[in-house]
Structure prediction request, 58 residues.
Amino acid sequence: MHEVQIAKVKLESEGINSYMVDENLVYTVGAVFIEDYMLMVVADAFDKALSILSLHKT
Prediction:
C-alpha cells in the first residue's frame, strides 16, 4: 500500500483531495489505479490528478 499513500500525498500537495477505495467497488466518478488500490478524485480533478501522477511515475 506504500505507493498509493505516496500518490495520495502528491495529489494533496497539488490541492486535490483523494480517497482510497477498495478495488471491488463498482460505481466510480473518477479513479486512478495504483497497485491493487484505487484513488478516487472528483470528476473535475481527474485529468489533473492523472497528469500529476504520470509525471511522478518511476
In short: The chain has a mean pLDDT of 77. The two ends are 16 Å apart (CA to CA).
